[in-house]
Amino acid sequence: MRINLPELKVIASRFLEMMNILNIHSTANLESHLGEVYPCLDKSPDFIEIVLRPSLENTTTYTVSYTRPGTGIPLEIKVNPASKYSLIILKTERLVIGYSNIVTDRFGNIAQFKKIQSIDFSDARREISELQSA
User: Fold this and answer.
1) Cα distance between residue 41 and residue 26, in whole Å
2) Closest CA to 126 of 83, 94, 86
3) How far apart are CA 37 and CA 123, in angstroms?
4) Phi, psi of 108 (to 5 degrees)
5) Is the pLDDT of residue 134 over 80?
6) What does pLDDT average to over the chain?
7) Which of 130, 96, 127, 124 is nearest to 110 (CA)?
8) Which residues have C-beta within 8 Å of that of residue 83, sequence separation ≥ 6?
9) Which residue has the higher pLDDT, 91 or 55?
10) What is the distance between the alpha carbons of residues 28 and 51, in angstroms, rounded to a whole number?
11) CA dihedral 19, 20, 21, 27 (to 10 degrees)
């Protein structure tokens, strides 16, 4: 399924709503949610998963993924404390200003990322918030 910018804004809003409900405002808050999967509250099949994953730099990242069954992961935050950066990864049919192209999926969505030099989850949340006004 193709994801347009208005739909990405809805996804960003749901993501932030879930982070508020789960009281995840900082990187330290992620620790107690590792390995958990949370359904979105709007009766959609979408869900959020919080895990610790290996990175390409032989370190680990806290990974918070918004997953849409049948489409994949349209929004993800990766926080890498050892390497002192975070990544925001999006999928939408058009490149978002400030993001770099990774690959195009089978639906025509562009996987893209933005690297921020911060491991504070609140900074990554702020970036997601800015998507709502893009």
Assistant:
1) 22
2) 86
3) 23
4) 95, 5
5) no
6) 93
7) 96
8) 55, 57, 59
9) 91
10) 13
11) 50
Residue 50, C-beta contacts closer than 8 angstroms, at least 6 positions apart: 24, 30, 33, 34, 35, 36, 38, 62, 63, 64, 65
The tokens for 94 are 């058009």
* Beta bridge pairs of residue 61: 53
User: Can you tell me the distance from the alpha carbon of 114 to that of 124, in angstroms, rounded to the nearest whole number?
Assistant: 10
How many angstroms separate the CA atoms of 26 and 10, rounded? 22
Question: How much of the chain exceeds pLDDT 70, in percent?
Answer: 99
The reported pTM is 0.93
Q: So what's the pLDDT on residue 56?
A: 80
**Coil, helix or strand at residue 105:** coil
What tokens does 124 get?
């990554």
- Residue 89: per-residue pLDDT: 97
pLDDT at 30 over 80: yes
pLDDT one-digit tens code per residue, 57-82? 789 999 999 999 999 999 999 999 99
3-class DSSP state of 86: strand
